[in-house]
UniProtKB/TrEMBL annotation, chain A:
Keywords: Membrane, Oxidoreductase, Transmembrane, Transmembrane helix. Residues 132-405 form the NADH:quinone oxidoreductase/Mrp antiporter transmembrane domain. It is a multi-pass membrane protein. It is an enzyme of class 1 (oxidoreductase). The keyword Cytoplasm does not apply. It is found in: Endomembrane system; Membrane. Residues 68-115 form the NADH-Ubiquinone oxidoreductase (complex I) chain 5 N-terminal domain. Its EC number is 1.6.5.-. The chain crosses the membrane at residues 6-24, 31-52, 72-100, 112-131, 137-157, 169-188, 208-224, 245-263, 275-296, 303-321, 327-352, 373-394, 417-443, 464-484, 496-518, 642-661. It comes from the Bacteria. This is NADH-quinone oxidoreductase subunit L. The lineage of its organism: Bacteria, Bacillati, Actinomycetota, Actinomycetes, Kitasatosporales.
Automatic annotation (TrEMBL), chain B:
This is NADH-quinone oxidoreductase subunit K. The gene is nuoK. Residues 112-124 have a biased composition (Basic and acidic residues). NDH-1 is composed of 14 different subunits. Subunits NuoA, H, J, K, L, M, N constitute the membrane sector of the complex. Keywords: Cell membrane, Membrane, NAD, Oxidoreductase, Quinone, Translocase, Transmembrane, Transmembrane helix, Transport.
Length: 664, 124
């Protein structure tokens, strides 16, 4: 098989798996699990094969015209360069892991067939985005991911949280997608083609007439998809979906699509220094704000969701300083360790019977119940906090190193201001990231109190997947920073001394300060008992999670917060804690800015329709109704009256006829 | 015989029938009055047919043929009418036309609009 054929098969296999899963889900339940796992596995293997054959060489580019449109034709195009090949490997790996994990996690779920098919469809769409060389075909994959995300976030649609979250995720990402579509059209009009290679050629020859407008329009879509400020609010709420979905969609792949898109079209953004500054500011606000918010969350998955937003902020930061190699490097290593964090969190939620960190901190020996999740999560949290030699350290240092180079004026691929913004906020976020990672670890695994409930051993597949993902979290960064520059055709990704010392020092500071705060507050935990636990020893993990999410508001009064004085985050943030837990009230701002005007407009329209339009309609009907009422009085029911009237009429007519005929 | 005699007779018959239809209260008598009116018409048809056929040498006597049709239809009509009266009497115990007023307009003026408004509320 040629490399092109293999590359076509990579997105096609999960798609066929999804179709077959949807068709056979009810009639042949025995085939559902193989149909879910095998296409993902096969497409992972083929993606590895494509990556090996491509080998960082010149981009594999082949196209066939899909449809003539009259102006700019749409091509079914493949454009596999080093970025695409490696990101596809990551997508295949995480999708396979998630499918295997889901067979254990949702083993008794009645809606498992449609769930697995949607995950397959999602995987296929993401691979299409990764491999596509045509912006319109890319958009198709982009939108399929959006709708799959809507369905999967709403998997537990019995709970109001999941329903609201799925709608919110869909609407917010669509809010970004509308400008994104306009931006794509504007870009294609300027470049005369939807093909990425041609667009980049036009940019290189200076043929782009409106770079700032196009870049800003495209950024709106990227901000929606990649959960960047100010369109990030859907991601924390999307944690109402099942944990494997959070791992696949909201950590490793879909949210990375925006970053990947900018990485592919980086020259378009570089053509406008204003867009680069906007990107840098967006990244800075996103990463620092989300890190503070993560420090205040009580739901373990919401902590991870905010940390995803923050790490995506690092990637956009790397793009803002014009280093796509660093951005995709961080994307790859983050994809591995964040998927691991989520999947391990799923195991912990199942074992603890709650998603609340406050409740977990009052449980003894939780780590002995789930030793695999404990060790792998420790590895992943160290990678998240960027402690050497874990993979997150190398990728984050490559981002900070790129920012430092731009800030110092050594390279001129981006404005110096962007470099300074990304560098300063990146270092600040390194401190905060280590702080919330330490807080998560201490609260989840160092709890004191009565024994954690026994939910039996976790399914083997779930634990096995954790160890599979622990390997890249541990070793990918150290191996990859020497190999990747050849693939990406870019500069050095190795850590520089200044940023390494600064970043690691700040990370250690954050960890130590949080530990000290925890030592100070943990004595309070015994005084305030907290903890509502959904204990179903026999039920699968999905049921436990759904109940934990549904009961969080009832038990603690808020979806994100718990009144826990023993929380070190509360001590560290002080008066800021209340606002950080609510995501800095951005939802309330949106409610005031958008939701309430829309509702007011709707009630105004209702009033106009009911009171104004209907009044005219009623008025038009009033006169005929009055006349009808008058005429109806003649209807007495006495047949003889009718006949008399008939006779009288006849006589009158006859007399008239006679008079006319005689001419009198 | 002069044409005036049957014409006056039939006019008298018709007026008697008309009076019966308009004034009698018993449904059977009303039906009988209808028969009177029909027969007045029959008489006219026959009389004018004879009067016209005197002028023309050879006619089809269509007036007399039409009379036969009218008689046949009158027989069918009275049969159905009597059956209806019988059924009404069995149901209501009366065949008084003044008391058979179910088709009259009710006293309430605008029940239809209320119903429509309620339906609109329910669907809104």
């Amino acid at each position: 098989m040629t490399t092109t054929t293999v590359a076509v098969l990579v997105p096609l296999l999960p798609f066929l798996g999804a179709v077959a899963g949807l068709l056979l889900g009810r009639t042949a339940p025995g085939f559902v699990r193989p149909l879910a796992v095998l296409p993902a596995l096969a497409s992972f293997a083929l993606a590895v094969l494509v990556a090996v054959r491509q080998g960082g060489g010149p981009a594999l580019d082949s196209a066939t015209e899909l449809t003539p449109t009259g102006s700019v034709p749409i091509y079914l195009a493949l454009d596999v360069d080093g970025f695409a090949a490696l990101v596809a490997v990551l997508v295949g790996l995480v999708a396979t892991c998630v499918q295997v994990y889901s067979t254990g996690y949702l083993r008794d779920d009645p809606r498992y067939p449609s769930y697995a098919a949607l995950v397959s469809l999602f995987t296929s769409a993401m691979l299409l985005v990764v491999y596509s060389g045509d912006l319109m075909v890319l958009l198709v994959g982009w939108e399929i991911m959006g709708i799959c995300s809507y369905f999967l976030v709403g998997h537990y649609w019995e709970t109001p949280e999941a329903r609201a979250a799925s709608l919110k995720a869909f609407l917010v990402t669509k809010l970004g997608d509308v400008p994104f579509l306009i931006g794509l059209f504007a870009l294609a009009t300027d470049a005369g083609s939807f093909r990425i290679s041609k667009v980049l050629g036009t940019v290189a020859s200076g043929g782009l007439h409106h770079p700032t407008v196009i870049a800003l329009l495209l950024l709106a879509g990227v901000a929606g998809k990649s959960a960047q400020f100010p369109l990030h609010t859907w991601l924390p709420d999307a944690m109402a979906g099942p944990t494997p979905v959070s791992a696949l969609i909201h950590a490793a792949t879909m949210v990375a699509a925006g970053v990947y898109f900018v990485a592919r079209l980086l020259p378009v953004f570089q053509a406008s220094s204003a867009a680069m500054i906007v990107l840098a500011v967006m990244a800075a606000v996103t990463m620092s704000g989300s890190a503070v918010a993560a420090l205040a969350q009580d739901d373990i998955k919401r902590v991870l969701a905010y940390s995803t937003i923050g790490q995506l902020g690092y990637m956009t930061g790397a793009l803002a300083v014009g280093d796509r190699g660093a951005a995709v490097f961080h994307l790859l290593s983050h994809g591995a360790f964040k998927a691991l964090l989520f999947l391990a969190a799923g195991v912990i939620i199942h074992a603890a019977g709650t998603n609340s960190l406050a409740a977990m901190s009052r449980m003894g020996h939780l780590r002995d119940r789930v030793p695999d999740a404990y060790w792998t999560m420790t590895v992943a949290l160290l990678a998240l906090a960027a402690v050497p030699p874990f993979s997150g350290f190398f990728s984050k240092e490559s981002v900070l190193g790129a920012a430092e180079q731009v800030a110092g004026g050594h390279v001129d691929r981006a404005p110096g201001a962007a470099g300074w913004i990304v560098l300063v906020f990146g270092l600040l976020t390194a401190l905060l990231t280590a702080a919330y990672a330490t807080r998560l670890w201490l609260l989840a695994f160092r709890g004191r109190g009565p024994q954690a409930p026994d939910h039996g051993r976790q399914p083997l597949v779930m634990n096995a997947v954790l160890w599979v993902l622990a390997v890249p979290s541990l070793a990918f960064g150290g191996l990859a920073f020497r190999l990747l520059p050849a693939w990406f055709g870019g500069g050095d990704l190795g850590p520089t001394l200044t940023t390494s010392v600064l970043g690691t020092g700040l990370a250690l500071t954050g960890g130590i300060v949080t530990y000290a705060a925890w030592r100070h507050t943990t004595a309070l935990a015994a005084r305030v008992p907290l903890g509502a636990v959904a204990a179903h020893p026999e039920a699968d993990a999905g049921v436990v999670e759904a109940e934990a999410i549904a009961s969080h508001i009832a038990a603690y009064g808020d979806i994100a917060d718990a009144p826990d004085p023993a929380d070190p985050g509360r001590l560290l943030l002080g008066p800021l804690h209340r606002h950080a837990a609510a995501g800095f009230h951005l939802d309330a701002v949106y409610a005031a800015l958008f939701v309430r005007p829309v509702l007011a407009g709707a009630s105004l329209v209702r009033f106009v329709d009911r009171e104004v339009v209907e009044t005219y309609v009623r008025g038009a009907g009033a006169l005929p109704r009055l006349l009808g009422a008058a005429v109806r009085r003649a209807q007495t029911g006495n047949v003889q009256t009718y006949v008399s009237a008939l006779l009288a009429g006849t006589v009158v007519l006859a007399v008239a006829a006679v008079l006319v005929a005689t001419g009198a | 015989m002069h044409l005036a005699y049957p014409a006056v007779l039939s006019a008298l018959l018709f007026c008697t029938g008309l009076y019966g239809v308009l004034a009698r209260r018993n449904a059977i008598l009303v039906l009988m009055s209808v028969e009177l009116m029909l027969n007045a018409v029959n008489l006219n048809l026959v009389a004018f047919d004879v009067w016209l056929s005197r002028a023309a040498a050879d006619t089809l006597h269509s007036g007399q043929a039409l009379t036969l049709f009218t008689i046949a239809i009158a027989a069918a009509e009275i049969g159905i009418g009597l059956a209806i009266v019988l059924a009404v009497y069995r149901n209501r115990g009366t065949s008084d036309i003044d008391r058979l007023r179910d088709a009259a307009e009710g006293p309430d003026d605008a029940p239809e609009t209320d119903r429509a408004a309620k339906k609109a509320e329910a669907t809104a």
